[in-house]
Design goal:
mainly alpha; transmembrane helix; DUF485 domain-containing protein; membrane; DUF485; transmembrane
């Protein structure tokens, strides 16, 4: 007896067995998906953490530099702090674009092999 879930559009989909999940996890397609994710996430996270740590260290130890007025009452510390927000949004946008182009199609293909239509 096959268990059935109702998914998007009321399409009946088969629920994979634990053995099928294990086989999908061990498949070359899934390993490629994980590798692509790691190749994006780890360097991006490391770069952002280094950038953030640099900002904190500059704020703690380079008071004169951070207090340098760039224009008007806006100093280097304020611009670097705002740069943290800009960097966060840029990384998020880059990840969404990467996921839409590289990860989601591969994940959908793996899922479709696990949940074949019953029709």
């Amino acid at each position: 007896m096959t268990s059935i879930d109702l998914d998007k559009g009321d399409a009946a989909r088969r629920t994979p067995t634990p053995e099928e999940f294990a086989a999908a996890y061990a498949s070359p397609q899934f390993q490629e998906l994980r590798t692509r994710l790691r190749r994006f996430v780890f360097p991006m996270a490391a770069a952002f953490l280094i950038w953030y740590l640099s900002y904190v260290l500059l704020g703690a130890y380079a008071h004169d530099f951070m207090a340098t007025e760039v224009f008007g009452h806006v100093n280097a510390g304020l611009l670097l702090g705002l740069g943290q927000f800009v960097t966060t949004f840029a990384i998020t946008a880059a990840y969404v674009r990467f996921a839409n182009r590289q990860l989601d199609p591969r994940a959908a293909a793996i899922r479709s092999t696990l949940e074949e239509d019953l029709a």
